[in-house]
Amino acid sequence: MGKKSEAAKGSSRLPHAERRAQILEIASEFFSENGLTGQTRRLAEACGVSQRLVYRFFPTKEDLLAEVYREEILGAFKAGWFAELQDRSVPVEKRFCLFYQDYLETTLTRKWLRLFLYASLSDSSMAPDYIASIVTQLLDVLIREAAFDQHIELPKNRDVTNEMAWTLHGAISHYAIRRHLYKASMRVPEESVVAMHVRMFLAGLKPMVEAYQQEQL
Amino acid sequence: MGKKSEAAKGSSRLPHAERRAQILEIASEFFSENGLTGQTRRLAEACGVSQRLVYRFFPTKEDLLAEVYREEILGAFKAGWFAELQDRSVPVEKRFCLFYQDYLETTLTRKWLRLFLYASLSDSSMAPDYIASIVTQLLDVLIREAAFDQHIELPKNRDVTNEMAWTLHGAISHYAIRRHLYKASMRVPEESVVAMHVRMFLAGLKPMVEAYQQEQL
DNA sequence: ATTTCATGTCGTCAATTGACGACATAAAAT
DNA sequence: ATTTTATGTCGTCAATTGACGACATGAAAT
Fold first, then answer.
1. Which of A163, A187, A204 sits opposite B203 (nearest CB)?
2. CB within 8 Å: B117 and A117
């Protein structure tokens, strides 16, 4: 045990950057569990420091929350995913399954989801931002790779193709919400669930495109 | 204009039941927008009555919230849906589309969704209850009707078939979350979206079943 | 007309909560 | 060793907030 382990939480003096990082880390966990209305005093308590100290690093609670979002929400996306998803030397089905298993483990965690939903429920523009800056690209890649694999001619309208890709992405996001928020007991192994979603999407894409064109009379 | 329209909100004396109903109605809207931490004073203000009066009808804020949930969350499901979904004189695809258009309009509203999520984020057992008491039955009906139509032999494990039905129900629920919470601009008409989801589910069900069986080696 | 009682308001209490000034102290610079 | 600076705490203020006692008032019963 190092010499740092005496108070476990965060007593002994820390350099600016470290303490700030520690508070941020604990704050993300804290607000994720207690909501954005969680008290700064409790947060400080969880950090093992005085409440006043928190205000040394973040002028207001708002600023702290903004920082948490930027760090935790936007920071949870791996850049490499885009490349892997487009690596056509691997079968699409496998690519999609691996990606979503990873995405579920890395991004769609309890902490991330709760923060994301709390933020969306307040009026923050965080969710739209996240979707615009990250998810939209992801949807494009998904639908393009799926269409290529299934030899499907896609509608030109990007809003429509996005909506199609959402059938997969939304379903899996909702699976995560069910698991982490609704406390559903997940009796079917995750890989099976992901595999079912992906298979269904790939096989159902062509019929879905036809359904859309049929609507356009 | 009737003689009641002078104060518009809720001044002039009302009989017990009416005032109670009015407070409940406004409270559901209020907490849906402002979260469960919304202040009783603001609520009273929105009702056009004194804060004290609210406590005449509900001993504590907790009790008021509990009543709102019971009324708004559980009360938003039409009993007739189960019958309509099983009316085999109508094509499944049409049945499913009509049901989900109705479900989106009646249940998956902004008010309902926000309440449901706020409640889920606190530790209330409301979401699990709702799922156990209503959604599970719905999932059973959906998968049974779809399998019958597509001449599919389903796995015996109910957890698995539920999970399969969730691919449709979850995707549409998530579509509603996107619309009402993430403030996504919905440029594709709702009927088209519903039609695409339903078509995809029906066409993808068999491949999904195969994917599951394939996993079970 | 007077009594009765439910409907409704005012004012207030005690706990909470974001924010910050004043002070203490450890570490680094001189 | 002494000065300097940044790290950290204590106590407190003002606004908020759930809850409620005491009082007012309109309608219905006698």
1. A204
2. yes
Structural domain B16-72, CATH architecture:
Orthogonal Bundle (1.10)
pLDDT, one tens digit per residue, over A118-148 is 999 998 888 998 999 899 999 999 999 999 9
Q: How confident is the model at residue A4 (pLDDT cuts 50, 70, 90)?
A: very low
Predicted TM-score (pTM) of this structure: 0.93
Q: Where are the domains of chain A?
A: 16-72, 75-215
Q: Is the Cβ–Cβ distance between A99 and A42 less than 8 Å?
A: no
End-to-end CA distance of chain B: 73
Residues, chain A, total? 217
| Interatomic CA distance for residues B152 and B118, integer angstroms | 39
CA separation for the pair B96, B83 (Å, rounded):
12
Instruction: Spell out a b/e string for B180-212, using b for 16 or more CB atoms within 10 Å of the CB, else e.
Output: bbbebeeebeeebbbbbbbbbbbbbbbbbbebb
Contact of A154 with A147, CB cutoff 8 Å: yes
d(CA A101, CA A164): 20
CA A21/CA A56 separation, integer angstroms: 13
Q: Which nucleotides of C are covered by protein (CB under 7 A)?
A: 6-11, 16-22, 26-27
Q: Give start and end residues of each alpha helix (H) in chain B.
A: 16-34, 40-47, 51-57, 61-72, 80-85, 92-106, 110-121, 126-130, 136-150, 158-180, 190-215
Dist CA A69 CA B72 (whole Å):
31
C-alpha distances in angstroms, B67 versus A54, A106, B45, B112? 38, 38, 20, 14
Low-confidence ranges of chain B (pLDDT < 50): 1-8
Write out chain B residues lying below 8 Å of A134, CB-based: none
Query: How large is the average pLDDT for residues A193-210?
Result: 98
> What average pLDDT does the segment A28-34 reach?
98
Nearest Cβ partner of B171 from A171, A191, A198?
Answer: A171
Instruction: Please answer whether residues B68 and B28 qualify as being in contact, where contact means their C-beta atoms are separated by less than 8 angstroms.
Output: yes
Dihedral (CA of A41, A26, B62, B179) sign: positive
Q: Determine the 3-state secondary structure of A86 from DSSP.
A: coil
DSSP code, position B76: G
Tokens of A78: 């791996």
C-alpha A53/C-alpha A148 separation (Å) is 55
